[in-house]
Amino acid sequence: MTKPTKLTFVGGKPVLVTYDKVIRQDNDRAYNYHRKVEENEYLKFYHSTEWRHKRNEILERDYGLCQRCGSEAVLVDHIIPSKDDWEDRLDSSNLQSLCRECHKIKTKREWMKHHKGMKRYMNITMVCGLPASGKSTYVKRHMTDHDLIYDYDELMQALSGLPSRHRNHDVHDYIMLFFDQMLRKLKAEQTFNNVWIIRTLPDKRIDTLLSNYHHIDHIVIDTQPSVCEQRLIERKQKINFVKILNDFKRADFTGYRVVKNR
Ligand SMILES: [Zn+2]
């Protein structure tokens, strides 16, 4: 038994198809309808008093400066796009002041991200290992010229001006503050080719925060503890190696790829 047919246009040419065949026009109609509803709500939000107040509040909080480049900000941006996270559209921690140029770059990246679907193009790699096990060396060997490297020890040295492995607890707070901000920013972005997070021990918190947004590679550099200790002595670095080694032995490296370093 033949089904009833309908006349439709495919690629500009009239064709007869079965009545229940969904062709592009029908899809377009459904799509346009949803788009209209969504965009209405979207536009309404950006014209609301609520948003205008919030917008001024954020510009004031950020001293009217673009949070990326420091020039004069002209708009307030959702770090995680409001379309992806409608519930949190008035959440201050998800808002930042931007200049037009930086906003353009960010929007372009988000567009690329959406249109490339699940294909990832910013890798995040956690590199763990004992002190002096060769973590930085590994990263330097694998990095490209558009990467971000978060290395706690290097930051401590740079920000405190102290010799390597000495800690200033107040500077520690600032490094951690920067780390939280960095994680927040990384959630929404595809800015770098690679992000390298260099740490001694694994941190489940980082995985929890980022794994919904990015794929994270986990690497642990496997170097003989005695070799590490010897290097530290040669570098005259005084740290409590025994304690660190104990923590390291107890740590959970499930899911980590072991890179032998001899
Ligand atoms: Zn800017």
Write up this protein:
With 262 residues, the protein is of the alpha/beta class. The chain has 2 domains: 49-112, His-Me finger endonuclease fold, CATH 3.40.1800; 122-260, Rossmann fold. It is 44% helix and 18% strand. The protein has helices spanning 24-46, 49-61, 100-115, 135-142, 152-160, 169-188, 204-210, 225-234, 241-250, and strands at 5-10, 13-18, 75-78, 95-98, 123-128, 147-151, 194-199, 216-222, 257-260. A hairpin with a 2-residue loop joins β1 (5-10) and β2 (13-18). It is extended, with a radius of gyration of 26 Å. The structure holds zinc ion. Zinc ion is lined by residues 66, 68-69, 71, 98-99, 101-102.
The geometry reads as extended
Tell how many strands the DSSP assignment holds: 9
H/E element order:
EEHHEEHEHEHHEHEHHE
- Tally of individual helices: 9
Strand order in space, largest sheet: 6-7-5-8-9
Small molecules (ligands, ions, cofactors) in the structure: zinc ion
Per CATH, the superfamily of the largest domain is: P-loop containing nucleotide triphosphate hydrolases
Number of domains: 2
CATH architecture of the largest domain: 3-Layer(aba) Sandwich
- Low-pLDDT ranges: none
